[in-house]
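Standup, Tuesday
Yesterday: got the pipeline producing structure tokens again.
Today: sanity-check two examples.
Blockers: none.

Example 1:
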Amino acid sequence: MDRFGILAVLEAKPGKEKEVAEFLKSARSLVLQEVGTSAWFAFQTGPTSFGIFDTFADEDGRNAHLTGEVAKALFAKAEELFASKPQVSMADLLATK
């Protein structure tokens, strides 16, 4: 069972919504290379609101993801694409299916 997660909440700058969506879609290929990432979801919840949620069996997987290529790309693009700094929260998973 996955016991660890990360939730990143992202707010696109006005006019950058399509670029954020495309960036998130393109990140999938990087995540597929991460052996410690069990599940990865990129989503949109409103016109300018986006997010990422990932799960991991252990903290090593989560830490590897936090220092991996997706995280590097996300923060490299942050000033260009996002209205504010991405809000990243660590999660302890209580139950999964």
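Example 2:
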Amino acid sequence: MNSSNDSLAMQRITKLVDENSFMEIGSLVTARNTDFNLADTDTPSDGVITGHGLVDGNLVFVYSQNAAVLNGTIGEMHAKKIAAVYDMAMKMGAPVIGFIDCAGMRLQESVDALNGFGEIYAKEVAASGVVPQISAIFGSCGGGLAVVPALSDFAFMESKGKMFINSPNAIEGNRIEKCDTSSAEFQSEKNGCIDAVGTEDEIIAEIRELVSVLPLNNEGDVYTSECQDDLNRACENMAAMKGDPRYLLSEISDGHVFFETKKNYAKDMVTGFIQLNGMTVGAVANCSEVYDEEGKKAEEFSGALTARGCNKAAEFVNFCDAFEIPVLSLTNVKGYAATVCAEKGLAKALARMTMAFADATCPKVNLITGNAIGSAYVTMNSKAIGADFTYAWEDAKIGMMDGELAAKIMYADASADELAAKAKEYDALQSSVMTAARRGYVDLILDPADTRKYLVDAFELLYTKCAGVPDKKHGTK
């Protein structure tokens, strides 16, 4: 019994992979359980199509749940097929892409279905850091199934999809009309595991683009394409747009291409991938401004680190380090978010981000584009915690605190004119980029227009970096 070629699950696979490249595995598998008349129910492929194909010539393994078969619910054989895909992917060193459209556990199979969930979780954990894992939610993804995209490295969600641990109406004091906690909008902005929302075609196109820039496994090469761009190309308007790192990263990348991750979550911290001379580089950047497609300022942030932003950065850096993808940080930070809400989780999040940067042995470059003030700067991949190179633009400001505040603390009884003079003196002596460079904390001061060529050179040099690590099992954060 073969899977229907016109099923929605198969159509999604066909859109994803190169033409005629998909080979289905396990097409004859059906449900094994016979309780509650399940034996009388037609269950082709037990509700999930699995196999392998090519994306731009790169091998990928795919599973796609078929909601037309028992609502795509997960039973014993359904789970075993997904687990088998993971086993093959790890043997072959290729990414796993999962299309989720499922009503949850199959009630007729009870403990077998529960065990199946556990098998899928275990395979995701085993594959983490070995091969990239990508999930896309096209229908329903509820209860324990929501753990699957959360365990993935990247997760996408169709605009009309639903993702939840508890349904909106099951949350005390809430109704779906009041706050739809299962919506794509809520999950992408508040949850922290959804990278982008869109139509089915948009999501599949983004997944194809993502696969083309990622190494296939943790031993794969980060040179993923041929560079057709000028390596010495001048980058225009960089200083004027330093508040929005999306523009800066697009400007320095080959072909002006920047693939952003977690676009709608913690917008004060930007993460994503660029390419420099064909090499994939992970980027982490502070964001104080967001400009729309017309060049108008759409949003503005304080330039302070937040708990969500730090957690977002830490998770991204850990992914890059696991796959030996070089990391570029763009630092433009004034301090920490100062709210009661921020205090609840900021210290732990800062510790997590600091550990991620300091622990990472992949090539690391820090570019200071604006403010680098206080210990917030230190946590942003500074030379002190392990950056291989630290560059700064000519007008960057690096110091313990703002000159005006420092003057008020040191000269509390001084007049306004004297405070202004002392503030200017403090900035010149303690917060200038030249002061930091003379002490070895900055390796090179750049004209913003020259940023691309110097970053290309830095990562080319660091390509063969080999860093020893202390003998320990793992860190604890």
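Quick observation on example 2: The chain has 15 helices and 21 strands. The domain at 8-211 is CATH 3.90.226.10 (2-enoyl-CoA Hydratase; Chain A, domain 1).
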